Amino acid sequence: MKILGFESSCDETGVAVVCTEQGLLAHALHSQIAMHEAYGGVVPELASRDHIQRVLPLTREVLGKAGLTLNDIDAIAYTAGPGLAGALLVGASVAQSVAWALQLPAIPVHHLEGHLLSPLLAEPRPPFPFVALLVSGGHTQLMKVERVGSYELLGETLDDAAGEAFDKSAKLMGLGYPGGPALSRLAEEGDASRFDLPRPMLHSRDLDFSFSGLKTAVLTRLNQLRKDSAGALEAQDRADLAAATEAAIVDVLAAKSIKAMQQTSLKHLVVAGGVGANRHLRERLQAAMQGLGGKVYFPPLQLCTDNGAMIAFAAAQRVLAGLEDLKGSHHAFTVKPRWDLQEVSVAR
């Protein structure tokens, strides 16, 4: 079964074709970073308009790469939420229109389920059950995953997500947009031990996160540095603060992930989402899981950010798990800008 998937939840337009027997056949992605950079963040209206311009050319590109036509497709998948309402509507309306025209089933997919299952696109694949750390610009959660469609929330951020902490701290340092990758690059030149930044909720008994206090601490430190240097921030000051900020975020993410492994007695950890591309986080978790006698799994670097492959793949996995009634599919649709992942969890 070949599934054409569309992702348009925020500032990336992604299209892919996944086969339930052969896996990922082709995918293409357009990032809107250059467009939003001038505004210092995502402008929802501009994001929606750009998705409209990109989605059909990307679809033609993906079908060409896969050597397929629309007549070879058996089902259509799309991100139904969470995300920006206007952006979601672009992908959903295109997907449902194609499905209606071809009389194919349409499968709405939860964006975070796509991220959660994306490490299964790589080899070796993580075996079920596992603990998943979903860590991105808008989400930081720890989930216990029994199987496809069975998700238990273990802990989540109470305020900013880890990706927001990266981006907001980078903006305070004047690093531009997108801030997270820029901060990580600058951190490579810095000394993380120079500044002692807080690790919020590091020693709490639960598995929840908090990063807003870290952002405030970065601002306080920046103000003091500017005061001490009469307003001129030295390049090394910025690099050292970037390194300290990254170290604080990684420390908290790693500590909570390991605590989740210990509490669940599981041996397999999956990390998904844009922050999962961070080199220091990967190294820390790999070392920690080795010490626990377990293993950590990541999606391919190119699939850490939002992409169509994870949406088509999640739909394929739900079909294989018997969670989708393809014969009962209809083409009336809605999108869900706010959507709890546990709402798609099926108890078995």
What this model shows, in words?
The strands form two sheets. Strands 3-2-1-4-5 form a five-stranded mixed sheet, sandwiched between helices. It has a five-stranded mixed sheet with strand order 8-7-6-9-10, sandwiched between helices. With 348 residues, it is an alpha/beta fold. The mean pLDDT is 95. 51% of the residues are buried. It has two domains: 156 residues, Nucleotidyltransferase, domain 5 (2-Layer Sandwich), CATH 3.30.420.40; 172 residues, 2-Layer Sandwich (Nucleotidyltransferase, domain 5). Helices cover 42% and strands 18% of the residues. The longest helix is centred in the last third of the chain and has 30 residues.
**Helix tally?**
10
N- to C-terminal distance: 25 Å
- How is the main sheet built? 5 strands, mixed
Order of strands, main sheet, comes to 3-2-1-4-5
| Unreliable residue runs | none
Given helix and strand content, the structural type is: alpha/beta
Tally of strands: 10
- Here the CATH topology of the largest domain equals Nucleotidyltransferase, domain 5
Mean pLDDT: 95
CATH architecture type of the largest domain: 2-Layer Sandwich
- SSE sequence, one letter per element: EEEHHEHEHEEEHHHHEHEH
How much of the polypeptide forms β-strand, as a percent range? 15-25%
Radius of gyration: 21 Å
Q: Which oligomeric state applies?
A: single chain
Apparent shape: globular
Name the helicity range. 40-55%
Per CATH, the superfamily of the largest domain is: ATPase, nucleotide binding domain
Count of discrete domains: 2
What's the CATH class label of the largest domain? Alpha Beta
